[in-house]
Design goal:
Distance between the termini: 27 Å
Oligomer: single chain
Number of helices: 12
Helix content: 40-55%
Strand content: 15-25%
Number of strands: 10
Amino acid sequence: MTLQRFMDEAISPWMKEEAEDNDIVLSSRIRLARNFADAVFPVIADSSELEKIRAFFQQEYAHENFQEHKNFEFVSIRDLTAIEKRVLVEKHLISPLLAQNADAAGVIISENEQVSLMINEEDHIRIQLYYPGFQLDEALKKAFDFDDWLEEKINYAYDEKRGYLTACPSNVGTGMRASVMMHLPALAITKQLNQMIPAINQLGLVVRGIYGEGSESIGNIFQISNQITLGKSEEDIVEDLRSVVTQLIQHERNARKHIMEQSSEKLEDRIFRSYGILKYSRIMESKEAARCLSNVRLGIDLGFIEGVSRNILNELMVLIQPGFLQHYAQSTLTAKERDVLRASLIRKRFEEE
């Protein structure tokens, strides 16, 4: 296992697995923030203190195995090029903030890319664990197991009254962010989602873009996650999120049914226009590509388009991003050059399919 494989494969192995409601829910994620009890938090620590944390993880966990997650690879952020860091962000293996913390930051990634452990981001430890489709319970259980495994060697910063102590007060308590990534094209087309977001926020949840806080939605993909970490158990947080996601799934299915009943020909035209643009365009901006991929994925889900796997669209949503395009070209590209290469790669990928 080397860094090269993480860079070359646009779609992570775990994303290829079939799972419940994966026509709408792309993935479920549990993220846990943890800190060492006897170390200064990263936000105010000096470089020597952070280097000790980094060295500890490199020594103790590189090439280790945890249950079915094999061959953990340690990657030093300071050894990466700007393009390599961007690719890891685009694959959700590291956060944009970790990519900026180059001096003593690192990440440990499992062979199937389902688990990543970010080191010296905002906190000493950020555990991320992904599952395909709607599998929050399974993700939570595995995250607990992984957390316990780390705690065998680490004394966490923990307060009996407040819970896990973190650099940002918004994470104190469970230190957990539970989230699901959802494809909601019908709710976006009918503009129902904009009406739902305020109600979702009132329940202590937030709707964000594909790359989390501060990012915009592309390709009608939205991330739903909890905001509250203090005063609720991890199980209660997951239950609240599950309830809202279950309702969103049903609303999306109803919206798709309504569009099919009321304007099937118009929807079919929208889908196949997008399909044609993807197959034949010579220049394509990222937002246009994401919009067309969303329409084609909807066409696959509704049975308009046959013989094309959903996985091709999961793959292309990453492959069309600026970092991956430049990694593929092995050079820094202008915006125009990226648009030309993006269109070319999409055409070739559909030809292969």
